[in-house]
């Protein structure tokens, strides 16, 4: 398959209708990594038409559940087979370390296996007691139809799998649009679906920009559901485009996530070490390009100075470089535009009075850091205030802000003082207090004495402007279903409601 034939429509790999292409850049040095097809609205329409035919008259929606589950497991086996190749692709495309890429592939594999197990273990329908032996009443679940799945650039394969696996498990067809910045692992995944035996037309792929491709998918009258993961501004446009056709919409729009550290978590040397380490992990994994990144450190005033000093010292020692290089701990940002955005946030924060404790800008070039790469040093900004833009807006880069509190109520108030509500954490040696604070946090995922782990069995999503709906868990499957009540009268007779 020529590299530019990255559209998959009705089971056929092809170039864009208009012949346009896009160069995919290696964020470690700015060189061209690959060239892909640049779709437009015509390609989106063709992909939707194929998915519509596959749903309305193809075999997949009527395929028995055990067979659908078996296909998902075959995909998981193929992911295991291609683990190193896909992880390398993900590392080069996004800039993340190769180790992170491997973890992503393992998590994608787990998602496919989880949804296979979930859909296979469910009862065929829920019998409802109608209060009469002459009535059989059952609630069943059916696929929504044609789904538009729009994935982000930071976890292209992982976030795509959170949509693709439940969509297929439920019996839907779909058109998948990866980010125009990082489409390469998604191309590989769609190839694996075909290899696993998925019928032609069930899985469509269009590589191209959000406008016009994503916008057309969201507005398309033959699309029954749109699932979008990305930024708040783009998500609101997707919701507005979908509204006239009243299609189902699921949105995951990021967060500005608090990491609350109580002094008692640092009372012992081991506790202090673990809590500092987790704060680094929370803020700087994948260079902070994580929707659930713990970018807001909210630490008890009595331990602030010791904690921030150690945190900043360790941040300055993070090994920054090309994700595929040995011993590198943090890779580049995804693009020059993202680097400029992060630099602007840091400059604004310093102008507003934040105190720089670590990082602050681009590192010097080195053996694993080419001069053309989009690198930014892990940055710690102390003495931050709630009104600062860097505290309130999602930076999506390696920038950690520090705020302090004196009481539990103040900690909770600070943590909840955000328009987002995706994730948060609380660190405390007092189990009762940790659980009490977790219960008060208005965030979709709350970790206690940990940061970042998730389970495919547990729902993922946020409160407030972090989005609507949930991915993963049983609710993640429910997003891709319609619920139908079938009421059967076993002994029909005249009702005699009307005298005539």
Automatic annotation (TrEMBL):
Pathway: Amine and polyamine biosynthesis; betaine biosynthesis via choline pathway; betaine from betaine aldehyde: step 1/1. Belongs to the aldehyde dehydrogenase family. Keywords: NAD, Oxidoreductase. SUPFAM superfamilies: ALDH-like. This is Aldehyde dehydrogenase family protein. The keyword Ribonucleoprotein does not apply. Pfam families: Aldedh. Residues 13-486 form the Aldehyde dehydrogenase domain. PROSITE patterns: ALDEHYDE_DEHYDR_CYS (PS00070), ALDEHYDE_DEHYDR_GLU (PS00687). It comes from Streptomyces bohaiensis. The active site is at residue 252. The lineage of its organism: Bacteria, Bacillati, Actinomycetota, Actinomycetes, Kitasatosporales. The keyword NAD applies. InterPro entries: Ald_DH/histidinol_DH, Ald_DH_C, Ald_DH_CS_CYS, Ald_DH_CS_GLU, Ald_DH_N, Aldehyde_DH_dom.
């Amino acid at each position: 398959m020529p590299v530019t034939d990255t559209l998959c429509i009705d089971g056929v790999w092809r170039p864009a209708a208009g012949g346009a292409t896009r160069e995919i850049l290696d964020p470690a040095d700015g060189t061209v990594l690959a060239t892909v097809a640049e779709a437009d609205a015509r390609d989106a329409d063709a992909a939707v038409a194929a998915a519509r035919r596959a749903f309305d008259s193809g075999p997949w929606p009527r395929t028995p559940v055990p067979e659908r589950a078996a296909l998902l497991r075959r995909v998981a086996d193929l992911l295991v087979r291609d683990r190193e190749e896909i992880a390398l692709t993900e590392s080069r495309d996004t800039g993340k370390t190769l180790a992170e890429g491997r973890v992503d592939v393992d998590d994608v594999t787990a998602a496919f296996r989880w949804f296979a197990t979930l859909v296979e273990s469910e009862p065929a329908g829920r019998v409802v007691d109608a209060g009469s032996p002459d009535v059989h009443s059952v609630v069943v679940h059916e696929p929504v139809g044609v789904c538009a799945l729009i994935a982000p650039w930071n976890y292209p394969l992982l976030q795509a799998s959170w949509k693709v696996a439940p969509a297929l498990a439920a019996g839907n067809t779909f058109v998948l649009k990866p980010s125009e910045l990082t489409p390469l692992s998604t191309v590989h995944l769609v190839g694996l679906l075909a290899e696993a035996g998925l019928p032609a037309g069930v899985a469509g792929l269009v590589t191209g920009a959000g406008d016009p491709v994503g916008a057309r998918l969201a507005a398309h009258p033959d699309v029954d559901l749109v699932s979008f993961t990305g930024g708040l501004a783009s998500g609101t446009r997707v919701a507005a485009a979908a509204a006239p056709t009243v299609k189902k919409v699921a949105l995951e729009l990021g967060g500005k996530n608090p990491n609350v550290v109580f002094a008692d978590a640092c009372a012992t040397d081991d506790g202090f070490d673990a809590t500092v380490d987790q704060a680094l992990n929370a803020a700087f994994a994948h260079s902070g390009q994580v929707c659930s990144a713990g970018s807001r450190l909210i630490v008890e005033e009595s331990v602030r100075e010791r904690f921030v000093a150690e945190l900043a010292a360790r941040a300055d020692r993070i090994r920054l470089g090309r994700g595929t290089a040995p011993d590198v701990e943090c890779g580049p940002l995804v693009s020059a535009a993202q680097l400029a955005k992060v630099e602007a946030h840091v400059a604004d924060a310093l102008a507003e009075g934040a105190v720089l404790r670590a990082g602050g800008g681009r590192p010097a070039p080195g053996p694993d850091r080419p001069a053309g790469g989009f690198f930014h040093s892990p940055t710690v900004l102390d003495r931050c205030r709630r009104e600062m833009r860097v505290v309130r807006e999602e930076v999506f880069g390696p920038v950690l802000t520090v705020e302090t509190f004196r009481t539990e109520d103040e900690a909770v108030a600070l943590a909840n003082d955000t328009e987002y509500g995706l994730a948060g954490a609380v660190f405390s040696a007092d189990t009762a207090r940790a659980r009490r604070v977790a219960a008060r946090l208005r965030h979709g995922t709350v970790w206690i004495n940990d940061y970042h782990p998730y389970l495919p069995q547990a729902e993922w999503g946020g409160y407030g402007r972090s989005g609507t709906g949930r991915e993963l868990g049983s609710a993640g499957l429910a997003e891709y279903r319609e619920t139908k009540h079938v009421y059967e009268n076993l002994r029909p007779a005249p009702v005699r409601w009307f005298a005539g």
